[in-house]
């Protein structure tokens, strides 16, 4: 029979890391990415989910935030039983969830790394000002290390610095809330690299670490999450903070160079949609018809056309129909009524109303103006 001391030693030897964060369906960030990084580096990942996202390679469409009491219950269950050596925190979206996590972690001293997910990779703010205020007051004092992008750092301090000198000051401002160290990402640039800054309590000199090809790599989904998870794992293995940061950057640089981001089918689907419209515009203008034909939801089809063309599916269908109407009005001697029926309209009046809405003039006026210009 194992004693509690033996069980704790076994979990310590296992290099157990607890990640508290949201779920990312694409696997590029969130709990899925944390588990992959921790496992790849020889750690053992246990997890607590704070939010479930509705997202794909196009972006986040919706959130379901786990109730604070359920988040706290997950933490209690894990830390009572497993006692992880290091806790890594990511997405927390409500002040109540922050308060619950803080209260739970106060009872279990461990190394806490926080990677604030305040702004998404697409620039969308993911939490309220009240949540940010609660993070400052209650969570930051518990943190051994805060790893933060410059875009999120401004929300933590209320400033938006634009120079490396300012960024060093920003890191120190964040430390005033009680955390032991701050790793400020994209703090400056040199020779095509991002010069990130590590500021530690009691250590006068800043430590600089670099991420090559900053515009490419830091623009990729989940980079900051991978860095913080890697640091957590190396700390769990007994490395000091400076060494853990160096090793984490080395790992992430190699991993990002070797693996491409997940690519969705948006471009392929857009081309298929346009082809479907070309084949059915005269018989069907319903977006649901095309979504069903492509075996996707109308919502996803709208996301794709918005991302690629900047237009709704219905707009694309109507524009295609209008352009075909213009072509037939100029290239054929058929009457407007015959053209209307040929394009699938149930009356000339319906066709004229549609055409006027799209062009500002009637089909007859369009034909007359264009033919007179041609002549």
Gap between N and C termini? 99 Å
CATH superfamily of the largest domain: Ribokinase
Number of domains: 2
> What percent strand?
15-25%
Mean pLDDT score? 83
CATH topology of the largest domain: UDP-N-acetylmuramoyl-L-alanine:D-glutamate ligase
Oligomer: single chain
CATH class of the largest domain: Alpha Beta
| Count of helix runs | 17
Low-confidence stretches: 1-5, 213-219
Number of strands: 10
Give the CATH architecture of the largest domain. 3-Layer(aba) Sandwich
Major sheet size, sense and barrel closure: 10 strands, mixed
Shape category: elongated
Classification by helices and strands: alpha/beta
Question: Which value, in Å, is the CA radius of gyration?
Answer: 28 Å
SSE order, one letter for each helix or strand: HEHEEHEHEHEHHEEEEHHHHHHHHHH
Query: Helix content range of the residues, please?
Result: 40-55%
Outline of the structure:
The chain is built from 17 helices and ten strands. With 375 residues, the protein is α/β, with parallel strands linked by helices. Strands 1, 2, 3, 4, 5, 6, 7, 8, 9 and 10 form a ten-stranded mixed beta sheet that branches.
């Amino acid at each position: 029979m194992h004693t509690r001391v033996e069980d704790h030693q076994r979990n310590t030897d296992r290099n157990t890391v607890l990640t508290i964060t949201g779920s990312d369906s694409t696997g590029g960030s969130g709990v899925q990415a944390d588990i992959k990084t921790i496992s790849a580096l020889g750690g053992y990942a246990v997890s607590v989910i704070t939010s479930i996202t509705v997202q794909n390679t196009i972006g986040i469409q919706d959130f379901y935030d786990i109730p604070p009491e359920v988040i706290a219950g997950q933490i209690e269950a894990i830390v009572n039983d497993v006692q992880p050596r290091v806790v890594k925190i990511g997405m927390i979206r409500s002040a109540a969830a922050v308060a619950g996590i803080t209260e739970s972690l106060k009872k279990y001293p461990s190394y806490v790394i926080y990677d604030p997910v305040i702004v998404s990779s697409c620039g969308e703010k993911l939490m309220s000002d009240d949540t940010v205020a609660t993070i400052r007051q209650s969570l930051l004092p518990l943190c051994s290390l805060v790893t933060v992008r410059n875009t999120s750092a401004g929300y933590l301090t209320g400033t938006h610095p634009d120079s490396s000198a300012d960024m060093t000051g920003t890191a120190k401002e964040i430390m005033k809330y009680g955390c032991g160290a701050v790793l400020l990402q994209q703090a400056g640039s040199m020779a095509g690299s991002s010069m990130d800054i590590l500021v530690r309590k009691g250590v006068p000199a800043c430590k600089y670490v670099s991420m090559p090809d900053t515009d490419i790599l830091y623009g990729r989904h989940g980079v900051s999450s991978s860095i913080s998870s890697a640091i957590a794992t190396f700390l769990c293995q007994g490395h000091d903070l400076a060494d853990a940061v160096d090793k984490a950057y080395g790992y992430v640089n190699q991993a990002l160079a070797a693996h491409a981001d997940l690519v969705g089918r948006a471009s392929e689907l857009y081309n298929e949609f346009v082809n479907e419209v070309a084949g059915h515009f005269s018989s069907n203008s319903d977006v649901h018809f095309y979504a069903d034909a492509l075996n996707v939801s109308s919502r996803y089809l709208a996301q794709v056309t918005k991302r690629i063309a900047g237009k709704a599916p219905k707009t694309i269908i109507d524009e295609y129909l209008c352009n075909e109407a213009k072509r037939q009005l100029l290239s054929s001697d058929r009457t407007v009524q015959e053209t209307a029926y040929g394009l699938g309209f149930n009356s000339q009046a319906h066709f004229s109303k549609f055409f006027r809405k799209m062009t500002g003039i009637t089909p007859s006026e369009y034909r007359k103006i264009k033919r007179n210009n041609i002549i």
